[in-house]
Write a structure and sequence with these properties.
Layout lengths: L27 E6 L2 E10 L2 E4 H6 L18 H4 L3 H15 L4 H4 L2 H7 E3 L4 E3 L7 E4 L3 H11 L16 E3 L5 E3 L4 E2 L2 E4 L8 E4 L3 E2 L2 E7 L11 H6 L1 E8 L2 E2 H7 L13 E3 L4 E2 L7 E2 L19 E2 L2 E7 L7 E7 L7 H10 L9 E3 L14 H4 L7 E2 L5 E2 L7 E10 L2 E13 L8
Parallel strand pairs: 6-22, 8-16, 9-26
Antiparallel strand pairs: 1-2, 1-5, 2-3, 3-4, 6-7, 10-11, 12-15, 13-14, 13-22, 14-16, 14-17, 18-19, 20-21, 20-25, 23-24, 25-26
This protein binds calcium ion.
The site of calcium ion has 7 residues, from loops.
Length: 429
């Protein structure tokens, strides 16, 4: 076992013990504070954010790290240093935070400067996202959508069990958790209508996903094996691929989703590293037919991460949990998705995002979208305040949380949330 994952480790940061951010987690984010507007790299420990730039300035990190690498505004420059550096910095931070290590614990001035209370840290998008690709890799989700959108055909199209199906999303509208999301305008046409119409989306939805951050560039024209792709992943964050179902249903044939998906995609502020998630690797569902050789997995490449979605109505203090599922259900793993993406010669950049696709489980209370939970509006959900939902209403906040648990240790991902704002008002086109 990697020593940083040892469940017996404890930290002198008292709030870490028993929290979702124990010393075994150490997720990365980008933050600023009221007194220091620079966006810099932080690692979450308990209810504190550890300022990596302050640690570096104090000479507590490897002197071989490039000066200022934690204060460039995103994590890309650090991630580009490669897996051995990610691992060495994690090992050093784990050491500095360990209960029996006094270096930082017994330096009150530096400790105050380097450990920021989480409520004083404003979180920012941690990555400069060059490319964002979203997959469609939950068999349960693809089957449910197939049944609704193509009721007369086979729910899974013939390629689905052979290819991790995906499309190129829009990096420019990836936003950090907490950013409000405006209801999109668009063109729709109900099957019974004789002509399309234009207006505010009436079937606004979320998609419960995880996003992997690509940590190693792959030059154009070169390929990666599944094993190499697995080693190229820096970590994972919670992800909400907001979707406009009425726009999607009218536009998606023949080239797939376009406007229905590009108005907003939210990502959690914290990226949990692949190293922290090592103890949570599990086998995915059996793949039958066996994938072609370039997609075969040499080991366990799914992750046991419990996921939950809740809706909090406008002005209401109580959020209602509407679905619980697990990342382990995915038919195609992130490593298979990335290997497939690169195999044609597509260049991959550090900071590219690989969206898992909606994560639905086998039971109706484990579906990862309202489209499935309400069966396209036919079965409304009732929230704690007594109101019902088929799709999202203005003022609703969608709240995604996730955690991996084993041996008394919980590795939390924080939250990925966003409030729905009304559509723009414009007349006179
Ligand atoms: Ca999606």
């Amino acid at each position: 076992m990697n020593p940083t994952n040892d469940p017996s480790l404890t930290s002198w940061v008292a709030s870490a013990q028993g929290s979702e951010f124990p010393i075994q987690n150490l997720p990365w984010g980008i933050f600023s504070t009221e007194g220091d507007e620079r966006r810099r790299a932080g690692i979450r420990i308990g209810d504190r954010v550890l300022d990596l730039d302050a640690l570096q300035a104090a000479g507590l990190l490897d002197p071989g790290l490039p000066a200022g690498v934690f204060a460039t505004g995103t994590l890309n420059a650090f991630i580009a240093l490669g897996r051995p550096v990610w691992s060495a910095v994690r090992a050093r931070v784990s050491e500095l935070l360990r209960a029996e290590v006094a270096t930082l614990a017994d330096d009150p001035v530096l400790r105050t400067r380097a450990l920021v209370p989480v409520e004083a840290a404003e979180m920012h998008l941690a990555i400069a996202v060059g490319g964002y690709t979203d997959f469609y890799s939950s068999r349960e989700h693809a089957t449910n959508v197939g049944r609704m959108f193509r009721p007369d055909g086979e729910p899974l199209l013939p390629n689905w069990l052979h290819i991790p199906i995906g499309y190129n999303g829009r990096a420019s509208t990836v936003v950090v958790s907490g950013t409000p999301v405006r209801r999109p305008l668009g063109q729709t046409k109900a099957p019974s209508a004789s002509a399309p119409s234009f207006g505010a989306c009436r079937k606004l939805d979320f998609e419960l996903e995880m996003a992997a951050v690509v940590g190693r560039a792959n030059p154009m024209g070169e390929v990666m094996s599944v094993e190499e792709a697995d080693a190229a992943i820096f970590g994972w964050a919670l992800f909400d691929d907001w979707s406009a179902r009425d726009i999607q249903a009218w536009e998606y044939v023949p080239l797939g989703p376009f406007q229905a998906k590009v108005f907003a995609t939210s990502i959690g502020a914290w990226i949990v590293t692949a190293e922290a998630l090592e103890p949570f690797r599990v086998d995915g569902p059996a793949q039958d037919p066996e994938p072609l050789p370039y997609l075969r997995q040499p080991g366990r490449m799914n992750l046991d991460v419990e996921l939950e979605v809740a809706i909090r109505p406008k002005g209401g203090s109580e959020a209602t949990v509407i679905a619980r599922t697990n990342f382990a259900h995915m038919y195609w793993s992130t490593a298979q998705q990335l290997a497939h993406h690169a195999v044609c010669g597509c260049a991959m950049e550090v900071g590219d995002l690989i969206g898992s696709g909606t994560i639905s489980g086998p039971t109706p209370d484990s579906f990862g979208s309202l489209l499935e939970l309400t069966w396209n509006g036919a079965k409304p959900l009732t929230l704690a305040d007594g109101s019902t939902r088929t799709f999202l209403e203005d003022g609703d906040t969608v709240i995604i949380t996730g955690r991996a648990r084993r041996g008394g240790i919980t590795i939390g991902f924080g939250v990925c949330e966003g409030e729905v704002l009304p559509a723009p008002v414009r007349t006179g086109w």
